[in-house]
Amino acid sequence: MEAFRTAQTTALDAIATFDPGLLVVSFGADTWEGDPISHFKLTTPDYTVLARDIAGRGWPTAIVMEGGYAVDALGHNVASFLSGF
Fold this sequence. Notes:
By secondary structure, the chain is of the alpha+beta class. The protein is built from three helices and two strands. The protein has a two-stranded parallel ribbon.
């Protein structure tokens, strides 16, 4: 989680230099630890933290859904992410 969060912070800092009027987040829950095609190993609660980091920037944000192939956990992971906003 910490490496992922560090990378996300680096990306958000770079985006901040452009003073975006809108941020589009392509959320993929295929980063979850139990996803059959992923090696990221994020936990469901990690998504809330990551979303709070994004939301904390104060930019208007549109969220679009991408991957997530652990179907039984997908709803929980999406809800965790959205709860961070």
